[in-house]
Amino acid sequence: MSPLGILQNALSLGPRSLPSLEAAVRAYTLDAAYTLRQEQDTGSLEPGKQADLVVLDRDIFKLPVNQIGKTKVLWTLLGGEEVYRSEDF
């Protein structure tokens, strides 16, 4: 399942939706790390934490909710190491 599709769905549940994209991103990152007791190592970009991140082809914070799942990942780092690079990057 696509994390971007999951974010879109989290905002499309009617009364059960998360209140904002910011809340959905936090739930998928820092809150998930906290639940797994890994918030000291991951979940946010801070000195000393693992560099897990993606570069997207567009700014999801400027999209209508129904377009978030169509966003493409261009580059992925896991623990600071490149694990994916799109031909478009």
UniProtKB/TrEMBL annotation:
Key words, A-Z: Hydrolase
InterPro entries per record: Amidohydro_3 (IPR013108), Metal-dep_hydrolase_composite (IPR011059)
Protein's UniProt keywords contain ATP-binding: no
Keyword presence, Flavoprotein: no
Pfam families from the UniProt entry: Amidohydro_3
Gene Ontology molecular-function annotations: hydrolase activity, acting on carbon-nitrogen (but not peptide) bonds
Domain Amidohydrolase as annotated: residue spans: 13-84
PANTHER family found in the cross-reference section: IMIDAZOLONEPROPIONASE, PROTEIN LONG AFTER FAR-RED 3
Entry protein name: Putative amidohydrolase YtcJ
Biological classification of the source: Bacteria, Pseudomonadati, Pseudomonadota, Gammaproteobacteria, Pseudomonadales
